Amino acid sequence: MTGDADEVRKTVKRRRARTSSKATIDVVAHEAGVSTATVSRVLSGSTGVSTELVDRVQRAARALSYQPNGAARGLASGSLRSLGVIVPDLGNAYFFDVVKAMHRAALLDGYRLMIADSDGEVDTELSTARDLLGQVDGLVLMSPRMTTTGLKELAGQSTPVVLINRVELGVDLPMVAADNVTAIMDLCAHLGGLGHRRIAYLAGSELAWQNRERWSAVQTAAKLLGIDAVSVPGDGTIEGGHAAVSEALARDRTALVCFNDLSALGAVSALRDLGLTVPGDVSVSGFDDIDIARHVNPRLTTVVSPKAEIGARAWEAMRTLLAGETVVSSPALPAHLLIRDSTGPART
């Protein structure tokens, strides 16, 4: 009778396990009559396991509706098939567009993205990167704010790292970026041709490499064109662009070259709040060409950033690193000026 009772208890246990949504590898091993190591090897696709054992483990796993933990499966196979991406602001449509292109390219190779927002904070960005290193096959930093020392630390890790919109000499990491200089020079020439001689650059985050590049390009163009250019502090957000307008107007500027489209939209809103027209009283331009730039009134003159190509190129670099190969450095991707309705002749 005792033997019968034991068998009943085992049967009940197996049935409960089959209906449980939390079946473990131990339960699968018990059901299949093998060790947990064998279950792990079978479910990770390892070779060297007999056909008979593979069949037993797979049948047990199906019966129990067992789903192996992704991280554990990755440790067994040597690949998690996942890519970490850290962005400074998920609320910025520019980053969304780049991530979307990267996602599409990575998905074709069987990889998925894990996305984290650093909120533009250096410490958060670096600590998040450290945390992700052991959870992903590769890491992409978009417009990273961290110091050169932080980048060098990540470059010394075994997990591949790719940078987007950050060019840093002396850091051994692949870098993908748009050409900020040429397009900004073209934009300033466009404004100069409209008679603007006093412009303000509404800055982005002082930690952003693109911000430094764009302001430098504005200064270079201004000297060549005989334009008086000043920089007004900002942060690359709609709110930051709105707040920066008062200082720009106090300095009698007729055109605003904004760090990005978000700050340009904020500037247009602030000018309207003051009863001024765009471009009648003040011309406004952006950078990135996010979707909303073409739908606002007036439609925004901006620089078109190659967002899709940046995302795809970043994945190409990462895929090369994952294959154990060396990434060949490539030139900055071209961006171009797109003239719409928010820029016009300077007021007299």
What's the tally of helices? 13
Beginning-to-end CA distance, first to last residue: 105 Å
Total individual domains = 3
Report strand %: 5-15%
As residue ranges, the low-confidence spans are 15-21
Strand order of the largest sheet: 2-1-3-4-5
Strand count, sense and barrel status of the largest sheet are: 5 strands, parallel
And the CATH topology of the largest domain?
Rossmann fold
**Percent helix range:** 40-55%
Spell the H/E element sequence: HHHHHEHEHEHEEHEHEHEHEEHE
- Number of beta strands: 11
What CATH architecture of the largest domain would you give? 3-Layer(aba) Sandwich
Quaternary: single chain
CATH H-level superfamily title of the largest domain:
Response regulator
Instruction: Name the overall outline.
Output: elongated
Task: Give a brief outline of the structure.
The protein has 13 helices and 11 strands. It has 348 residues and is of the alpha/beta class.
Q: What can you see in these coordinates?
A:
- It is a single chain.
- With 348 residues, the protein is an alpha/beta fold.
- The chain has three domains: 2-76, 434 Repressor (Amino-terminal Domain); 81-177 and 308-322, Rossmann fold, CATH 3.40.50.2300; 180-306, Response regulator (Rossmann fold, 3-Layer(aba) Sandwich).
- 47% of the residues lie in helices and 13% in strands.
- It has helices at residues 2-19, 25-32, 36-43, 51-64, 70-77, 93-108, 122-133, 148-155, 180-193, 209-225, 238-250, 261-273, 307-322; strands at 82-87, 112-117, 138-142, 161-164, 175-176, 198-202, 228-232, 255-258, 283-285, 302-304, 336-338.
- The strands form three sheets. The chain has a five-stranded parallel β-sheet with strand order 2-1-3-4-5, with helices on both faces. Strands 7-6-8-9 form a four-stranded parallel β-sheet. The protein has a two-stranded antiparallel ribbon with strand order 10-11.
- Helix 2 crosses helix 3 and helix 9 runs parallel beside helix 10.
- It is elongated, with a radius of gyration of 28 Å.
- The chain starts with a helix and ends in a 10-residue tail after the last strand.
